[in-house]
Amino acid sequence: VEETLVLIKPDGVARNLTGEILARIEAKGYQLVDLKLVQPDRELLSQHYAEHEGKPFYAPLLEFMESGPVVAIRLAGNRVIEGFRSLAGTTDPTTAAPGTIRGDLGRDWGLAVQQNLVHGSDSVETAQRELALWFD
Ligand code: ATP
Hints:
By secondary structure, the chain is α+β, with helices and mostly antiparallel strands. 42% of the residues lie in helices and 18% in strands. It has one domain: Nucleoside diphosphate kinase-like domain (Alpha-Beta Plaits, 2-Layer Sandwich), CATH 3.30.70. It contains seven helices and four strands, in the order βααβααβααβα. Bound molecules: adenosine-5'-triphosphate. Adenosine-5'-triphosphate binds at residues 57, 61, 91, 113-114, 116, 119-120, 122. Pfam families: NDK.
């Protein structure tokens, strides 16, 4: 069965939305295989976001992601990678569709980085790489 890495980012944890986000994931029928609260360090985050190095939002992104605890989830289900990204909605919370996590709960704070509550791996290869980083 397919697996993905889901992160509830520091804004989601700080805004007490962990339960609400987990409820949506569980209601959809995906299986929680492993779950932990972590304070990611810069080393982990720079590996996780290696593809964004050099982009204007890279430094604010790392700063935001290390600003507080994150919930890391190993999530399983049929087509869960695509399915979770659909549940999450598009990157920008302002235009993310209503009914999605980011569309319903995300706020645009007008900051240099989108504090958009969640992360989900975007391919099978990325999921394997990210799950190894966060769980192995
Ligand atoms: P994720 O990978 O976290 O699920 P995503 O695939 O929608 O999100 P990516 O393009 O991988 O987005 O970017 C990773 C994260 O960097 C985004 O979730 C967001 O927090 C931030 N980000 C991406 N693009 C921008 C941007 N143009 N301006 C500000 N922040 C951005």
